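Give me the fold.
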Amino acid sequence: MTVGVLIAVRGSRESTVAAAVGAAPGLTVARRCADLSEALAAARAGVGSVVLVSEQAHLHRGVVADFAAAGVAVVGVPSSPDGADHLRGLGIAHLLAADDDAGALLTSVGAATNKPAVAEAPPEAPDVDALERGIIIAVWGPTGAPGRTTLAVSMAYDLALAEPTVLVDVDTYGGAVAQALGLLDEAPGIAALARASLQGTLSADTVRRHALHASQGLRVLSGVTRAERWTELSTAALEPVWELLRTQAAVTVVDCGFSLERDEELQYDTHAPQRNGATLSALAAADVVVAVGSAEPLGIQRLVHSLAELDAVVPVETTPRLVVVNRVRAAVAGQRPREAVADALRRYSAVENVWTVGWDPRACDAATLAGQALGERAPRSSARKGIQAVASAARLATVPAPSRV
């Protein structure tokens, strides 16, 4: 079987590479492309099974992911040792050395087509005091402002009292973590890490430069400042970020957006970026998902419907999940509100364990006004006590149960 090869190599080495492909048995030049755009268009049209690329201005991790999505394996053709490091940083695992002949080319192409086209570059070695592998807790909830940010901020604050914690805002509709903690919302934050990831320059130093210190043990990566900037937080850019953050903190808490839709392919004839890619990426990377809804009847209804959607993204069988009902009070749920919301979720969503957070508007408003976490502003608040219980349960959900002899 002949393997078609797309060539998107810049400079004098392009002709040498084309000759090597022609000389290699079982390989054929499917197209010699003028630039990456032509190569990607050919890949999406089903022309070729492998693409050879060199380092160039418009090559980044997102382009490599686009080739992989089109089913085309990627082999790097660096022009120098620094170029080879750059291509590896973009997730390209298979490279051709400067003196490789047709036989070596055939070996690299074979290796690339028999394995995933994109292999994540290992994150930079952590500092001495960094943990080997931290956990990721994704805080998600349906539309209607059920309190995702309040819960994420308060959980992160309480967890940071015991171990290093990073709080990340990937809500591309209305991220507000920075405002909730009284931080500058113009800080580059998670967008800076995403850009570095795309360019293959992501490192522990990137986290140190852009994570803002909010309180003892807590660092914050703020979100995008305007909703139209959602394209900066692509799935391809964020996947390496999650792995790096595991080496930089014991716990990473992620404030997610509400929407789980991924219907771009139904609206566009061509490949389109995902508006909800940041949320979907965080949920896929999470070790535990905290799903929060509001105690009002409409809030419970939205939570019930959304939990079914969440199952399609992160099945509860594979990722531990805590279901939390926020703002629980008798005025909207009857004389025994905690039992009422738990019964409703058990009946309509088969949720056996429900965590509840009481209604404490005075403490929450004071924390919002001061730009502080609930535990910092009102440590004795009843809402804070409920959130502390959720944080502890989420942390314990990732600890393997002891084996029984």
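The CA atoms of residues 141 and 208 lie 29 Å apart.
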